[in-house]
Amino acid sequence: MKKYLVAYSIALQETLQRRSTLLMDRVGGFAVVLSLYSFWSALLGDKPSFLGYTRAEMMSYVLLINVLRAFVFTGRGWQTVSEISSGRISSYLVRPLSYHGYSLALDLAQKTVHVVSSFVEVAVLAWFVRGGVFLPRDPAAWLLFALSAALASLLFFFMEFMVSSLAFWTSESGGPLFCFDLFLQFAAGAFFPLDVLPAAVRRLLSATPFPYMVYVPVRVLLEKVSHAEAARLIAVEAAWLAAFALAAVALWRRGVRSYAAEGG
Amino acid sequence: MPAALEVRGLTKDYRSPVKEPGLWGGVKSLFDRRYKDTRAVDGVTFDIAEGELVGFLGANGAGKTTTLKMLSGLLTPTAGTATVLGRVPWRREAAFQKMISLVMGQRSQLWWEIPAYETFRLNQAIYGLPDAVFKDQLEELTDLLDLGEHLTVPVKKLSLGQRMRAELAAALLHRPRLLLLDEPTIGLDVVMQKKVREFVKAYNRRHGATVMLTSHNMTDVTELCRRVIVIERGRLLYDGPLDRLVARYADHKIVRARFTARVDPADLAELGTVTACDGESAVLQVPRGRVALAAAALLRSYPVADLDVEEVDIDDVVRGLFSRPPA
Fold first, then answer.
1. CB A109 within 8 A of CB A12
2. What angle do CA B272, B320, B236 make, to 5 degrees?
3. Alpha-carbon span A196 to A241, nearest angstrom
4. Who among A2, A94, A262 is closest to B97 (CB)?
5. Which of the residues A199, A262, B202, B231 has the least number of beta carbons within 10 Å of its own beta carbon?
6. β-pair partners for A53
């Protein structure tokens, strides 16, 4: 366990060391939130609510997207892909170390930095919106939200890990990873609440794990679902997580076996 | 002395997928794969005793790196067995991994943006080294490798030589009993090469560690290894003392002659291959079996002032082995 803690602390240092990359990432994320904010402000106009969201709720949704992007969608899939295709992965495979654990530690380090930064950004934006933000008073809503977001973060980790593992078989797994990232953000509700979509598409998406990554946690925090319903959603989310964790580990093992069989 | 490595009939076929080009080809090959087999290592057998320092030679593509990868557990062989420090490497047990280290001159395990010391700390945790052991070993390595202040500078700011030495230190912190070195001096200048060589020698002596190294650098081999294993096209070609390699693979000797009068190089050609001749002196390559005859003929028919017969330089022999075309 200690090795993963040390990996976490080193990765934290490294993330902070790459200040310009970090800054650009944050500016990019902030730009997304800012444009979402302007878009929804214009759309709402003088209307008290839209698609069942009050103005304050919609602003909360937009701000939460910034936090959840940082917490859920920060990952090192690209590094995994490059480590596999360059053969650098060898240096991990000859050491007594689990690459999953190591990756997760590094992921968490990046997430830490990004989440802290997103809190600052959200505070600035919230001040800008001046009280027009919805925050639940019920501590249970916060608790359920935290749980749902934590599971979402792990779910993303394993999903991304699976897609990155394709690098064991194809030298072009950067492509799938890119498509995956974009589609994921759309289907998770990181661009807009999924309520915008036609009912048929929504039904289709609700049968996938994607909405659990942003849309569900946000609705839990905005108290759009009852506690019982939130608990049910979290249970489904946990099941998705278990399925993807198992599949990711199995695919990785197969990848390593094929790497060992075919050489790198 | 007990054998550190027992390798029997080790064979590796690379199954390279025959893949249609493009992304779709990649996805398709995930489900319907066709393979082409290439034999990279072919029935290699040898033993290495604990504490030995062995050079592992061969041309590019001869199968050296593939063999090292099998011995470190990265690759599973197609056939054959290997016992390394009493374990089967490709099971990749933690207990095995803690006893070995694989250093590839062209690969780095150091974190790029931060000082090498941080990678060392990570390896301390990975190998579960107690603080006291870590401190001891770090001191020794810093001293032997002359690392000092380089450990606190971000790795990306280090020169190649400094980085390679930090790389070696990172690989040796857990004091491995077996060290597999793949081209440890590649890309280094002469001074750094010497430092790395001296270090490998010192480490081998001090800890009785077994070392197996591949190198294209002749000095690495001649200065470090008394025993060499040569493979060619995946097959074991030679396993024995370095000096006997010369007798075995140099099919000719060098005959040097100095003359008292001018000699036409064209006349000398009947005795052997003339590699240099300025009229007053000549260097000839003469097939082993005909050296005596050639020397006698020279003395008889030419105005010889001085005559020398030498073995071919070991570097040339090894270089000759390297330059044999791969399969």
1. yes
2. 125
3. 26
4. A94
5. A199
6. A50
Q: What is the pLDDT of residue A263?
A: 56
Task: Please state the pTM of the whole predicted model.
Answer: 0.83
Q: Which two tokens stand for residue B73?
A: 């557990």
Query: Token pair for residue A3?
Result: 């090795």
pLDDT band at B137 (very low <50, low <70, confident <90, very high): very high
Structure tokens, B63: 């199968």
CB pair distance less than 8 Å for B154 and A17: yes
B282: closest CA among B295, B290, B292? B295
pLDDT above 50 for A264 = no
pLDDT tens digit sequence for A117-163: 999 999 888 888 776 888 888 999 999 999 999 999 999 999 999 99
Q: Read off the tokens for A49.
A: 């609510």
Q: Which two tokens stand for residue B320?
A: 């000759």
Q: How far apart are the first and last CA of chain B?
A: 36
10 Å Cβ neighbour count for B185?
24
Please indicate whether, in this complex, the C-beta atoms of B74 and A260 are within 8 angstroms of each other: yes
SS3 content of chain A, % helix, strand, coil (to 5): 80, 0, 20
> What proportion of chain A, given as a percentage, has pLDDT over 70?
98
Task: Note the pLDDT of residue B246.
Answer: 75
**Which of A119-133, B22-36, B85-99 has maximum average pLDDT?**
B85-99
For chain B, domains (ranges, CATH) are: 3-247 (3.40.50.300), 252-310 (3.30.70)
The per-residue pLDDT for B327 is: 45
Q: Which of B23, B28, B32, B37 to mutate to test the interface with A (most CBs of A within 10 A)?
A: B23
Please check the confidence at residue A32 and state whether its pLDDT lies above 50.
Answer: yes
More confident residue, B265 or B132: B132
Chain A residues touching residue B119 (CB < 8 angstroms): 10
Which residues in B lie closer than 8 A to residue A94 (C-beta atoms)? 72-74, 92, 97, 100-102
Please judge whether B23 and A263 are an interchain contact, meaning their C-beta atoms are less than 8 angstroms apart. Answer: no
How many whole angstroms from its chain centre is CA A30?
16
Q: Which residue on chain B is closest to A255 by alpha carbon?
A: B30
What is the share, in percent, of chain B residues with pLDDT greater than 90?
51
Of B109, B124, B154, Cβ closest to residue A91: B109
Two tokens at B167?
């790389």
- A:167-206 residues touching chain B, CB 8 A cutoff: 169-173, 175-176
- What's the average model confidence in pLDDT over A160-178? 84
CB atoms inside a 10 Å sphere around CB B310: 10
ipTM given for this complex: 0.85
Which residues, in sequence order, are CB contacts of B86 under 8 Å at separation 6+? none
Domain ranges of chain A: 2-262
